[in-house]
Amino acid sequence: MSTDTETTDEQPPSTETNGQEAPPETPPSTDVDELQRALANERKRWEKAERELAALRKSQMDDNERAVAEAKEAGRAEAWAEVNSRLLAAEVRAIAADRLADPSDAVRLLDLDGLANEDGSPDAKAITAALDTLVKAKPYLAKQQGPAPPTSRVPQGARDGAPSHQEADDFLRSTIRRHRV
To answer: CA-CA distance, 63 to 99, in Å (whole number)?
Structure first.
């Protein structure tokens, strides 16, 4: 008696081609745009639901609990505002380091409020655009792209024996004579 068993499970078609895996299909850009819009809509719905839940919880609190919750929220908001302002200033200085001779000039001269996203985080594109505008308006702030300044000609390093004052005096006299001519 033969025990032939047939399997009815179908295997998915192989993704291999000539021993190599086929690259995964990327959705067309219209699908990606549609998915991004759907994600943005879901995030808005989620934020709205969170706000409604917070309002419901707040309405069920007595006066003391409500005052404590409001004080906590005010402190949290103030702390986040301070952190975001420091983060924004640091980001501006970091991006300005490539463009300005003194990156702290950017923090003093730019309106930092317009360089943050809605959530308070730094907007790198806006910072870059503002720095480009600043350099065009005030080119003397830009980092100079030229040869390095000349190094001093003062002898440096270890010398044989103790240095004498006479050697230093002679060096200074010869340098002065060269520059007078």
So the answer is: 54
